[in-house]
Amino acid sequence: MDWPRLRSVANWVNLSTPCGLLVARAAGCRVVGGWNGLYFALGYRPRLPVAGAFTIGNVILFRPRFADPAAFPDLVAHEERHGTQYALCLGLPFLAFYAVAAGYSWWRTGDPASRNVFERGAGLAAGGYIERPVRPAADALRGLRRWNPRRG
After folding, report:
1. Hey, which bits of the chain come out as E strands?
2. C-beta separation of 43 from 119 below 8 A
3. Tens digits of per-residue pLDDT, 122-140?
């Protein structure tokens, strides 16, 4: 069995692809078959997440400006790698792991992608991200000390 087929089966079994299709339907997207077992959900309009495209299982949800995914092969490849990450993380636990990685990246760089292991693994530039420099740990810790969750 080839990797795209194995990833597709894994993401159906771990329920991330069915969840992606439900999100696409709830958002009113038009879903079309892509390549390598991917589904392209076109016309995603809700505010969150802010990204131009994002992945849930083997479903890549695209904002309206990406109406023709074939015209953005680097972005599709980036999102396809996230599909692989879902399979390797056994599905929806990927979301929690991603949130922790984004938090760490934000703490170290002020950007949720630059030091996010999942975004780096998928290719920062292919996802449209700019790599931000790492802040010295002392500066990052000072920022944490100033943050008060009761104040917001």
Report:
1. 30-33, 39-42, 53-56, 59-62
2. no
3. 999 999 999 999 988 777 6
